[in-house]
Amino acid sequence: MDISNIQQTITKPVSNTDINNKRTNNSNNIELQSGYQKGANHTKDLILVVDDDTTFLKLITRILQQEGYEVDSVETGQDALDKTKENYYALILVDRKLPDTDGVELLNKIEDTDPEMRKIIFTGFPSIDNIQEAISLGAHAYLTKPIDPQEIIVTVKEQLEKRNKEFKDKYPTLK
């Protein structure tokens, strides 16, 4: 893709429907279509939340939606993998313990579908070994339950800002 086409792509307003309809295997296009549209009138970052505790899942989803994010939520690792094949997510929040897989293993599998996605893992059973393993396998942040709503908001915002900075650093001519 020629640079002028890239600039045109990211300067026009784009909806998440448009983004998700343009899924390709080209890693350059993945970044452009997965949450950063420079100059868009209003862009909602698409976030995926994965937790088998439906009460906690609904709570996190509501908190993030109130902050203006578009949120999908699922209860299993397989459902999360299926969602990442259908949509581009700017960020994923994953419970460490899921009924069908380990959250850290899920992060590793998701890395293959969208390496640009920011990944946050959370657990009610923290340990130094768990934290080190999660970070070494691709988690960008680690939260422990019970999670303060403000901590979720701040962590998500920080991770999305880092993601956008990485995008700008990766494509400096598009600033």
In short, what is this structure?
By secondary structure, the chain is α/β, with parallel strands linked by helices. Helix content is about 50%, strand content about 15%.
Describe the protein:
This protein is of the alpha/beta class. The protein has one domain: Response regulator (Rossmann fold, 3-Layer(aba) Sandwich). The protein is globular and about 45 Å long. A 5-stranded parallel sheet has the order 2-1-3-4-5, with helices on both faces. The two termini are 18 Å apart. The longest helix has 22 residues. The N terminus is likely disordered. α5 packs parallel to α6. The chain is built from 8 helices and 5 strands; from the N terminus they run αααβαβαβαβαβα.
Secondary-structure map:
Layout: H1 3-11, H2 16-21, H3 27-32, E1 46-50, H4 54-66, E2 70-74, H5 77-86, E3 91-95, H6 103-113, E4 118-123, H7 128-136, E5 141-144, H8 149-170
Parallel strand pairs: 1-2, 1-3, 3-4, 4-5
Helix pairs in contact: 5-6
